[in-house]
Amino acid sequence: MELPEEEMEPEAAYRLVHDELMLDGNARLNLATFATSWMEPQARALMDESLAKNAVDREEYPQTAAMEERCVRMLARLWNAPFPDACVGCSTTGSSEAAMLAGLVLKHRWRERRRSDDLDPGRPNLVMGANVQVCWKKFARYFDVEPRLVPLENGRYHLTQELLDQYCDQNTIGVISVLGSTLDGSYEPVDRICTALDVLQQRTGIDIPVHVDGASGAMVAPFVDPDLDWDFRLHRVVSINASGHKFGLVYPSIGWAVWRDAETVPEELIFQVNYLGGHMPTLGLSFSRPASQVVAQYYSFLRYGHSGLRRIQERCHSIARALAEEIAAIGPYQLLSDGSQLPVVTFHLTPETDGFTVFDVSRTLRERGWQVPAYTLPHNRTDLAVLRVVVRHGFSGELAQLFLDDLRRVTDQLTNQYGSRVILRAAGQKPAPLPSMIGGGKAIAG
Ligand SMILES: Cc1ncc(COP(=O)(O)O)c(C=O)c1O
């Protein structure tokens, strides 16, 4: 806990740190995270070449800055902005920073509106489902906005249009709609939420913008569900965020925030700095950031293009759906989500199962190295504890098969040990093989 008095040889320091890190979990077996845990060697080489660059030094590293700009334009087009070259956007450290920026823009716009109408601003509130990721609760607390969380109810595990009327008023700075809930990977109905807000505006005159938290979904839906209406095609959607380090296929940590147009972002949130040479508009919470992640994102977009990203995200989906079917067939598990929206499988124990919990399943899987989180759902459904598996690029059909074997074995073991009454898969019944990642001569994961 203290800085050592003496220096040591680099090799010795390397060994000490390296050996200690062996006790960390294996990132590839971490089925809990949405974050990318595998990239190609070419991407790693580019990241290595850019490690010494600071992304904020735009004047010094103009090509890195140009790559960031191109990524913003690509995302604006992917998310169907009416004028993609007029969008404002930036890279961030992840979706959390993007959420803070998007929330701040909503807050400033609301305050400007209230002031120009000569109305007392009052205390702002932000409406969202109780399923939102913690970054939105942080935004509300850090920036003094009342979080209005629409609770989950039986069978409804994310925000829908129904209760919006009861939660929105003249002090609502915006509604957050999540494309790809962290809890179960489900998509909120952004289009129906927008329509409900249109109706609210017709009735009351209150015009409430929508921000889409597409941390995962904004990099999945455009390729797998291109006809799903959730992005800038909906006029009420003013901004979108995504994590480049999730389904954008880049190692942590990079995120993106894109606003519909320049008018959406208040001037006062853009800072001009001149001490790096030239006049630089900056929008962001932090200043220095690694350039390597921006370079890696540009590589991923260039490398895979539409067809590659479609192929990878579809493959994740087919593995997730096959995994869901097999998990349901084991016996004591019921699916909450089956991987058909985000490639995420969420499941819980059937009410008849006794003697062990999902927390025991999670702990016992860990003995084999698998990291599968078990957690209870938020307010109103805290009675329900689930396990979640995120199928990401690099989680091959072969790895999924090994995971299933272990899950069956762990379930058998817990059932025998604790005498559960559930009936497991009939003896001798063979599980179906999962789709292989190595098909058609194209190996996409190591
Ligand atoms: C829906 C959603 N929003 C925001 C975040 C925060 O993202 P990040 O880890 O990129 O800050 C997550 C992370 O899982 C998420 O699932």
Automatic annotation (TrEMBL):
It is an enzyme of class 4 (lyase). It holds the Pfam family Pyridoxal_deC. Its EC number is 4.1.1.15. GO terms for molecular function: glutamate decarboxylase activity. It catalyses: L-glutamate + H(+) = 4-aminobutanoate + CO2. Keywords: Decarboxylase, Lyase, Pyridoxal phosphate. Coiled coil: none annotated. Its cofactor is pyridoxal 5'-phosphate. Belongs to the group II decarboxylase family. NCBIfam families: Glu-decarb-GAD. This is Glutamate decarboxylase. It comes from Streptomyces silvisoli.
